[in-house]
Design goal:
alpha/beta, Rossmann fold
Length: 136
């Protein structure tokens, strides 16, 4: 089964470009153009990883990430941020958002693909560690 990636961005050109790159890398790609749609698709379609913009028209990406982390069904889904903004580490809200990687828009697409794969590998390793029986 192909890993499923949910791309969340309100810019159609970005959605198209990232979809093209990740589909070509063997991922199944889902799209959302705003935060509410992203939350609905994440709950209904169980992505393996989410590529998330911060500047969205309804809920910003930080709020989307906070809601994802508060829900049992999406709490552990890795998130790779792809944003025009630098990581907002100066604010309490931005600093506590748990993401696998924060990339600036304009980064090369190979970096995005690598970051998505790394987030998936890290997530799989955490799951395997949780499922591994404790040694006596």
């Amino acid at each position: 089964m192909k890993p499923r990636v949910l791309i969340v961005d309100d810019e159609p050109d970005v959605l198209e470009l990232v979809d093209f790159q990740l589909s070509g890398e063997g991922f199944e790609v889902l799209r959302a153009a705003n935060g509410l749609e992203a939350l609905r698709r994440a709950r209904c379609e169980t992505p393996s990883v989410i590529v998330l913009d911060v500047l969205l028209p309804d809920l910003d990406g930080i709020a989307v990430c906070e809601i994802l982390r508060s829900q049992p069904s999406t709490r552990d889904v890795p998130v790779v941020v792809l944003s025009a903004l630098d990581r907002p580490s100066g604010t309490a809200r931005g600093a506590k958002v748990k993401v696998s990687k924060w990339l600036k828009k304009g980064s090369d697409l190979a970096s995005l693909s690598h970051s998505v794969r790394a987030a998936l590998d890290e997530h799989r390793a955490r799951v395997e560690l949780r499922l591994k029986p404790e040694e006596a």
